[in-house]
Amino acid sequence: MQRTMFERLGRALAFACEALPALVLAWLCLRIAEAIHASGAGVAQSSLFGASLGNDLLSLLRFGFVFLLGALPLALVPSRRWRTVLLGLVWSVLLLAHAALLQYHWISGVPLGADLFAYSGDEVKSTVAGGFQLSPLLGVAAPAALAVLWLFLALTLRDWWPRAPARTAAVFLAASLAGFVLLPQRFMPPVARSDADAEYLLNKTAFFIDSNLAQLRAPDADAAAPHARAQTPWSGSDPAHPFAHIERTPDTLGPLFDARPGAPPPNLVFVIVEGLGRSFSGPGARLGSFTPFLDELAGKSLYFENFLSGQGRTFGVLTTVFGSLPFGENGLAALGDKLPRHESLLTVLKSQDYRLRFYSGSNLEFDNEGLFLRRQGVDTLVSEKDFGPPYKRSNDWGYADRDLVEVALAREAQAPAGPFVSILQTTSMHSPFTFPGKDDYLRRVDARLAELKLARTPIHENGRDIFASILYTDDALRLFFERAQKLPGYENTIFVITGDHRLPELPMDTRIERYHVPLIVYSPLLKAPRAIKSVSSQFDIAPSLLAYLSNNHGLKSPKEVSWIGTGLDTEQSFRNLHAIPLKQTKTEMSDFVSGTAYLAQGQLYTLGDGMQTDRNADAGALARAQAQFRDFLQANGTAGRSAALLPAAKVELAAYGGERTLRGTALAVSAGDVGVSGLRRVPGGKEAEFEATFTNHGAHASPDFVPLLVITNEHALELNETVAPALTLGPGESRTVRLRPRLDKVAPGSYFVSVLPSHPATGRPVGVGQYHVETRL
Q: What's the DSSP call for residue 765?
């Protein structure tokens, strides 16, 4: 009898092996649908479709043992026909689950991983309801995949269908188990240049499983691993409170504002715009700017062009902007009642007679925002439950941005006198991108493209509703600022506008684009507008504003703080003096910036102006960035488990003073003093010629360097290099250089040009280049 059972188990394994081609072909239908969708977003199928199939087969090999072992219960079913039906039902569920993961990726812009379980059931329900819209492409592909599955399963019942011996099934089972342990989760060929490319290549089911297995195995493995401590802003002397340090944020904003003697401290108004990213807002926006009002406002403001959010989703924006706080495991606010005791810009101003008000047209309890704001002492909280007629919900997320603006303005007009902080958080630039008057804004997308003289690309065509929502929110903000001028206290108000993250539904060129958002600081108190290219992040907002208020208006700030940021850098040329942790989702944190080093999922890049990235092979810089990042992860884990971020039960406030500096750490990589700007193609002439300006921003003469021009294709493959004679620049000296590449082996088409100062011997960058300027050759 025992032998009979083993024979049955062997036949069950062999039966599953025989049926696997049906699953593979059905899966292929969904991959083809994914390829069609990705091609509309600019993902080149000619070079990536084969690699995507390779990742699917790799996933099948790594998880094949699940399919085989899952078929073992079928050994108890004597009828082959019924075994086939039961197997088909199980695999149908798997295909539908895979289709759902594709739908989620297409809607949200990111593949679903362990972050699913970082949200409550109500939050998951809100997310699905708020963004769900069945893709017509999947509406065809999913039934087609099911039809292919059942057709080929039916064919396996035919006598001519190849039969697999039990020994073959056992070999495949062993190979799959070995593959799961030894093989990489995925492979990324060099031609995968953008995030859209990389995410397309992923098998979404395999990614979901791998991500959750990693979370279950060791959610704090990196944080708990012993290592040598790096010098960082969070290397505090108290291991129980690693972020605690003496306040040392300099007042970089004060020189740019008109400090009127005896004037009361200014009011602060924050506008946090859902999904606002630099790739479609502001000068040089890669997709063209669809925020004409914000562009106009930026011209009257301090405009930070190379600015980073701290998070890739909304969950961390309030803690980052107002508290410069660490994340904990799933975002600090996710700790709920266990949120560590801390100080923030809001708590400090509240203790000094500021009134605090918050406005949102959405559910205030999503991401525990309401709990966090109540802990800060916010006096007025307005959310979706406070909207009534004539306002109507625009979707499951709540009320549209124009309605939010009108409600906020009406409330602000009736607010009591005295200094205040008001916060508006918008939602209309979020899937499903529905709002009043959408048809008119869809027509305005074409008008805006014509105004910008931009060709209609697949991204613009497939994302028309997204670009329409951007135009709609921009108009809502125009209304807010026009009417805010009539409110009491306007002349003594500082407005801060930023995005919570860059919306992911539009394809991203690089991973860091997810965090690349604008920062606009506007006020009637400003002496003059300024375009700022130096890098800062949302972690720097609260420390800088408090330093400004303390130094210029007599307010007090804590002697000891837990800020991650060190203050806004207002230098107009490109540089980065900060170390910045970046958390993409509640459960994924694998990005870190230190100077011009950008660590992304273990790969090192060099940051340049415009948040352009180039791969960096400097092993020393990689080791330094990894050490700093590990140090942050360990400190972040400690903070998430602590009762308080500062050791003192009551924080002591003090006047502005002491040693102050933006430099909080020895950075992994510091930018050289030589920078490149103004890269352009010289008009006219039969041959292509480019010019760029090299400037020495340092206080000493530059080392010798060679102006280097590089031409690459859309997959970052280098096609041509051209150099000019070596240069040395004195302090503050600039020189414009012309370079003429030889293009006899370059076919006509669209390419990318980069110019950088390179070492004469090694060819490595010795300063900050200007990268990936698109041109037609």
A: B
* Per-residue tokens: 687: 């041959």
Q: Are 718 and 748 in contact (CB under 8 A)?
A: no
Residue 370, strand partner residues: none
Residue 247 amino acid letter? E
CB-based contact 644:342 (threshold 8 Å) = yes
As beta bridge partners, residue 307 has 517, 536
Q: Are 178 and 135 spatial neighbours (Cβ–Cβ below 8 Å)? A: no
Asked if 600 and 511 count as a contact pair (C-beta separation under 8 A), the reply is yes
pLDDT of residue 139: 87
Q: How many CB atoms lie within 10 A of CB 749?
A: 9
How many other C-beta atoms are found inside a 10 Å radius of the C-beta of residue 45? 14
Residues 6+ positions from 267 with CB-CB distance below 8 Å: 419, 420, 421, 422, 489, 492, 493, 494
pLDDT in tens, 213-267: 876 765 444 444 444 344 466 666 788 889 998 899 999 999 999 977 778 999 9
98-126 burial, b if ≥16 CB within 10 A, otherwise e? bbbbbbbbbbbbbbbbbbbebbeeebeeb
Helix axes 136-155, 2-40, angle to 10 degrees: 150
DSSP element (H, E) containing 517? strand 516-522
pLDDT at 221: 43
Length of the chain: 777
**β-pair partners for 357:** 380, 422
Low-confidence ranges of the chain (pLDDT < 70): 1-8, 41-42, 108-109, 115-134, 193-195, 215, 217-236, 671-673, 685-686, 697-699, 714-716, 772
Q: Is the peptide bond before 432 cis (omega within 30 degrees of 0)?
A: yes
Q: Is 453 left (phi over 0), alpha (psi -120 to 50) or beta?
A: left
- For residue 564, which of 645, 655, 679 has the smallest C-alpha distance? 645
Placement of tokens 């990689």 in the chain: 622
Please, which residues have CB within 8 angstroms of residue 686's CB and are 6 or more apart in sequence?
none
Residues near 450 by beta carbon (within 8 Å), at least 6 away in sequence: none
CA angle centred on 313, ends 342 and 579, rounded to 5°:
60
pTM for the model stands at 0.80
User: What local confidence, expressed as pLDDT, does residue 128 receive?
Assistant: 57
| Bridging pattern class, strands 674-681 and 690-696 | antiparallel
| β partners of residue 601 | none
CB 599 within 8 A of CB 629: yes
Q: What is the DSSP letter of 597?
A: E
User: Residue 704 class from Cβ within 10 Å (0-12 exposed, 13-18 middle, 19+ buried)?
Assistant: middle
In the chain, the amino acid numbered 555 is: L
What DSSP string runs through 412-479?
HHTSPSS-EEEEEE--SSSTT---TTHHHHHHHHHHHHHHTT-PPPHHHHHTHHHHHHHHHHHHHHHH
What distance in Å separates the CA atoms of residue 425 and residue 271, rounded to the nearest whole number? 6
Q: For residues 364 and 349, what is the distance between their CA atoms, to the nearest angstrom?
A: 22
Distance CA 657, CA 659 (A): 7
DSSP structural state of residue 165: P
Q: Which residues, including other chains, have CB under 8 Å from residue 82's CB and lie 6 or more apart? A: none
Label the pairing between strands 355-360 and 380-382.
Answer: parallel
Instruction: Give the CA distances from residue 405 to residues 244, 659, 753, in Å, rounded to whole numbers and listed in that order.
Output: 38, 41, 43
Residue owning tokens 């949102």: 360
Strand-pairing partners, residue 773, are 753
pLDDT at 210: 85
Contacts of residue 127, Cβ cutoff 8 Å, sequence gap at least 6: 119
Handedness of CA 344, 349, 351, 356 (dihedral sign): negative
3-state DSSP assignment of residue 244:
coil
Q: Provide the total of helices (H) and of strands (E) in the chain, helices listed first.
A: 19, 25
Please return the burial class of 609, using the count of CB atoms within 10 Å of its CB with bins 0-12, 13-18 and 19+.
Answer: buried
For residue 327, the SS3 value is: coil
Tokens of 622: 């990689």
